[in-house]
Amino acid sequence: MTAPTLDRLTPTLGARVDGVDLSRPLPPEQVAAVRAALLEHKVLVFRGQQDLTPTRHRDFAAGLGELTPAHPVVPGLDADHPEIYVLDAGDGGKAPVWHTDVTFMRRPPLGSVLRAVELPPTGGDTCWTDLEAAYLRLSPPLRDLADGLTALHDGRADFDEYLHKRLGGEGGTWEGERIRSLEPVEHPVVRVHPETGRRSLFVNPGFTTRVVGLTPAESRALLDVFFAVIGLPEHTVRHRWAPGDLVIWDNRATAHYAIDDYGDQRRVMHRVTLRGTEPFGPGGRIPHQGRAAA
Predict the structure, then answer these.
(1) Strands 177-178 vs 173-174: parallel, antiparallel or unpaired
(2) Which of 28, 72, 110, 122 has a beta carbon 3.0–4.6 Å from 276's, enabling a disulfide?
(3) Which residues of the chain have pLDDT under 70?
């Protein structure tokens, strides 16, 4: 079996993967090659996968790791595919802000596997940013400070209304718990990657609301610095979607931004996420003050 070929998208972030047909089960050596490439490049782009069905999308993702439900709050595609999260731009499925998926839960996903289902004629690109590079861009004194901080991540602004008004307070199941409330959780500001040991700046404008232990003014100022370095174009890669595209990213070391420049044109994406572990920082694991479920 031919090994996949990789073409870097930037010197440090992203690679296009060729020589892989995701519509068929992959042999173990190809799965291992994809997992190794994900650790190295953080974002992997697969083109020409027009024959991929929802079932094969899910099954391919399952070969990379244990799957989560579609989302802590939003139900899955259908009864046969509860793991597929539908991002329909016509039904609130837009995310024009830098964010890392589901960091408002104690154990955010390891990674995400996103497939283009329906695309606008133009626009609708997605950008990813390298949170390891963002951490290294900070000055050494600021990195030392960040290493010892924790921050609150809160999903209520995006999902609380959906949970209570559309679902009547009965969300999905995440980590074996029925989600009936979304209380903020704490994560380290700097995350140590559990496989590579490298450090990333693990905050994002989408869900990170406050640095624990600081005054509101101090927290806002420090988050502004972190968010600014996350968004530097030197750390990013931008993908123009085409039919048949599928992208995988490492949720432990990246954030992404779905560009909303296509007006009321239709854009539908399917996402599957891989089960992750509780983030820990340079000093080890931290206690969580929030609860994800009631």
Answers:
(1) antiparallel
(2) 110
(3) 1-2, 285-294
**Position 2, amino acid:** T
Amino acid identity of residue 197, one-letter, is: G
Catalytic residue among 59, 101, 130, 250: 101
At residue 287, the pLDDT reads: 46
Residue 229 is predicted with a pLDDT of 98
> Dihedral angle at the C-alpha atoms of 209, 211, 214, 220, nearest 10 degrees?
-50
Task: Please report, for the chain, the start and end positions of each structural domain, with discontinuous segments joined by +.
Answer: 5-274
pTM: predicted TM-score of the whole model, two decimal places: 0.94
Tell me the β-bridge partners of 34: none
Which one from 199, 210, 252, 256 is the annotated catalytic residue? 256
pLDDT the model gives residue 87? 98
The catalytic position among 99, 153, 191, 235 is 99
DSSP helix/strand/coil, 291: coil
Quick check: is 267 catalytic?
Answer: no
Contact 251, 273 (CB under 8 A): yes
The pLDDT, as a whole number, for residue 286 is 55
Q: Is residue 101 among the annotated active site residues?
A: yes
Residue 275 is among the residues annotated as catalytic for this protein: no
Give catalytic status of residue 271 as yes or no: yes
